[in-house]
Write a structure and sequence with these properties.
This protein is mostly beta strands and 710 residues long. Helix content is 4%, strand content 57%. It is built from five helices and 45 strands. The strands form eleven sheets. It has a 23-stranded antiparallel sheet that branches. A three-stranded mixed sheet has the order 1-3-2, with no helix packed on it. A three-stranded antiparallel sheet has the order 7-6-10, with no helix packed on it. A hairpin with a 2-residue loop joins strand 11 and strand 12. The longest helix has 10 residues. The two termini are 25 Å apart.
Length: 710
């Protein structure tokens, strides 16, 4: 529920309920602020009002390429669940590497932020200084109650986040709507056990996930009001009966930079100092808060006849205690160097030398060598070669990369390359090319291959037919070969044949018709896997827009089909005020525990004490999907080209939306958007028809008829 302080319409809203627990219900107040300074906005119609989060600033990358958000682009995002769904315009394959960058605020204490900078520029030099300070007030928590014991735990933890946990069991009275435990005394250590005994001392316990064989509890079963955990022994489960204590933090970063212009070149230097205190309750480990980083760089261009050469260099040093506010390298940096993450809090040195050669702006050759060192743990040398040339109507581009790393944990070798040659014609172009990756990771102690090692090769041929107005047809056929680890070696897993076609079939001022289809056929080496696994898939769509009668009638149609993943959903029944719910609970087996099959729709209003709430899980089911959207808008006065005032007041709208998903099983696709069968997971159909009679200056009355079927 929410309350609002609206004011005028150009206000956005700030959530004043930061820090509330997601598992509970709270009354939330939104405060209006001037302009567009808040993260929420007010929407609504027909007397109803809603608070909606304004689109965020997430960035989605696939194989290092930035994607676009939108229903007719690469992906859409549900900001309420933080869930991204890729559209049929952007097929997703198992070999894709998806990176999502986003910002979020999780404030547990009152916080202040100060940023600023100074810059001075002259004709041949630039200087700058920047600062960033973000500080929590440990004496002003927000919706957070830390006991003296909690504060002492944080004081003793220092900078070690593994010690910032407190016991989570609290004594509570028996409530059938809660999952409760009683404490078992054991010489080897006390533990909690699920209980419905009203005479025992009962505890409400929160469990935190730590990972496989890192906890003492595991999920035993799921009841209506949550999950039941059972004790399985020390380090034999995934959960512990503790809660994370959020610590107040302080982040300070100061940086200075300079740059000097040379004749056809430049040199420069940057230096940064950080002060990152992860726990303001403790003075322990304060000597670990200060870190520094710096770099020097330069380049210069030489010319002779039709040749230009640009050598460049860069040296980076990052101290192990330096705190990085945001990503400082390319999004694929960790993958490029076979690192777990961009910076592993190990002193890092990097030296880059490159030489770019260009001839008449039609050909280029660039060689780059990267040396990366993480102190006493990792050394990597990466060689990159990029090239391209244009000769007549033939345009060729390519790249080659070789990485060799030595580390205490594992050694790796990573080879990548790709090439494409495109021949232009009067009506389009022909292209042929290929690419490959071969990444081998070997554990040093056991001489065993890491199961994430892989290898693949792909060749393709492409035909494009186009003119200055549209792409009439773009079709591509490719063959791919995949290897994965079997018996401590890379063995061929499957072959893939793919066909892709897209076309702007019609593109005029009044009519557009676009179509896209992508088909992949799998051929498995292991017949047993092939018999039990159907990975073949089709994804595609058709988009049609038509304007008729001087735009007095508009028809929009969208049809989409393909294979995807359907999120399994868990649900539970939440008790509400009597008469405000839909369901009732009957304890049929008399055990005092709410089982999901003991809830049913209440016959009488006074028995309706529960509502049903759905939550998505991380389990996904392979599915076939299809979708049909139709919409017709009619303005009669424009259609009949009439100046009749009565006719001008009418508007008509008809729309149909049908969306389905089915268990994939052995089927590759389901074409019929209205099909019903036993494999159906989800069906959502909406039909809307409306007729609107608008008011005028002389006649204020109006009418609206709306028919909706869901």
């Amino acid at each position: 529920q929410f309350e609002t302080n609206f004011g005028n319409e150009n206000k956005t809203f700030v959530d004043l309920s930061a820090g509330v627990a997601r598992s509970e219900f709270h009354r939330i107040r939104f405060q209006g602020v001037e302009g567009n300074q808040g993260p929420y906005r007010l929407t609504g119609k027909n007397g109803e009002q809603f608070i909606t989060i304004i689109s965020g600033s997430e960035q989605v990358y696939i194989d290092g390429i930035l994607m676009k958000r939108g229903e007719n682009q690469d992906y859409i995002i549900n900001y309420n669940t933080g869930e991204i769904t890729f559209t049929s315009f952007r097929p997703i394959f198992k070999q894709n590497f998806i990176t999502i960058s986003y910002n979020y605020t999780n404030r547990n204490y009152t916080r202040f932020l100060i940023t600023g900078g100074i810059r001075h520029e002259r004709e041949k030099s630039k200087f700058g200084f920047n600062w960033f300070t973000e500080n929590d007030n440990k004496n002003a928590p927000l919706s957070l109650n830390l006991s003296k014991e909690d504060q002492q735990i944080l004081a003793d933890a220092g900078n070690n986040p593994d010690l910032m946990y407190a016991p989570s069991g609290t004594v509570t009275e028996y409530d059938v709507n809660k999952i409760l435990y009683h404490l078992i005394q054991n010489p080897n250590g006390n533990y909690y056990e699920f209980s419905t005994d009203q005479t025992a001392t009962l505890y409400q316990v929160a469990f935190t996930y730590f990972g496989q064989n890192l906890g003492d509890y595991r999920i035993k079963q799921t009841t209506n009001n949550g999950r039941v955990f059972e004790y399985v022994g020390s380090n034999m489960g995934e959960y512990r009966a503790v809660r994370k204590l959020p610590s107040p933090q302080k982040t300070q970063v100061f940086s200075a930079n300079s740059e000097f212009l040379l004749k056809d070149g430049k040199i420069g230097a940057d230096v940064s100092l950080s002060n990152f205190d992860v726990n303001l309750f403790s003075s322990k480990d304060s000597d670990q808060n200060i870190g520094y980083a710096g770099r020097v760089f330069g380049n210069k261009t030489y010319s002779r006849n039709n040749w230009k050469g640009t050598p460049s260099f860069e040296y980076q040093h990052i101290n192990s205690r330096f705190h990085i506010l945001d990503r400082i390298n390319d999004v694929e940096f960790s993958r490029d160097f076979n690192l777990a993450q961009e910076f592993n809090q190990i002193t890092q040195n990097r030296f880059i030398v490159s030489f770019l050669n260009q001839w008449n702006n039609s050909s280029f050759l660039n060689y780059k060598i990267n040396y990366l060192d993480e102190k006493n743990s990792y050394t990597g040398i990466k060689n990159d070669l990029d090239f391209g040339w244009i000769k007549g109507k033939l345009n060729t581009r390519g790249n080659f990369s070789y990485l060799d790393t030595k580390a205490t944990f594992q050694d790796t070798k990573f080879v990548r390359s790709g090439i494409i040659s495109e021949y232009s014609t009067k009506k389009g172009s022909w292209a042929i090319g290929g690419s490959m990756e071969h990444n081998v990771k070997n554990f040093n102690e056991t001489n065993q291959l890491d199961v994430s090692s892989f290898s693949w090769k792909e060749v393709f041929i492409q035909k494009k037919i186009s003119d200055s107005a549209r792409t009439k047809l773009l079709t591509k056929m490719y063959f791919r070969d995949n290897d994965s680890v079997r018996n401590n070696s890379l063995e061929n897993m499957n072959h893939i044949l793919g066909i892709m076609a897209e076309s702007q079939i019609i593109k005029t001022e009044k009519t557009t018709l676009n179509a896209l289809i992508h088909y992949r056929k799998f051929y498995y080496q292991n017949q047993e896997i092939s018999a039990n696994l159907n990975q073949d898939f089709v994804v595609g769509n058709i988009l049609y827009n038509q304007q008729l009668f001087r735009n007095g009638m508009r028809l929009q149609a969208f049809y989409e089909l393909g294979n995807g993943q359907e999120a399994q959903r868990e649900f539970q029944y939440i008790k509400v005020t009597d008469g405000q719910g839909v369901y009732k609970w009957t304890d049929y087996n008399g055990d005092g525990i709410q089982q999901l099959d003991e809830f049913e729709i209440a016959e009488y209003a006074d028995l309706a004490q529960y509502i049903r709430v759905y939550t998505n899980t991380v389990n996904y089911i392979p599915s076939n999907k299809n979708k049909m959207q139709l919409a017709l808008f009619v303005n009669p006065s424009v259609v009949f080209n009439s100046e009749n005032q009565f006719l001008k007041r009418w508007n008509f709208n008809i729309s149909l939306n049908s969306q389905n998903s089915f268990y994939k099983r052995e089927k590759v696709l389901v074409l019929n958007p209205f099909e019903k069968n036993a494999d159906q997971i989800l069906k959502n159909q909406n039909f809307l028809a409306s007729a609107q009679f608008n008011p005028t200056e002389k006649s204020g009355w109006n009418g609206n008829y709306r028919f909706i079927a869901n």
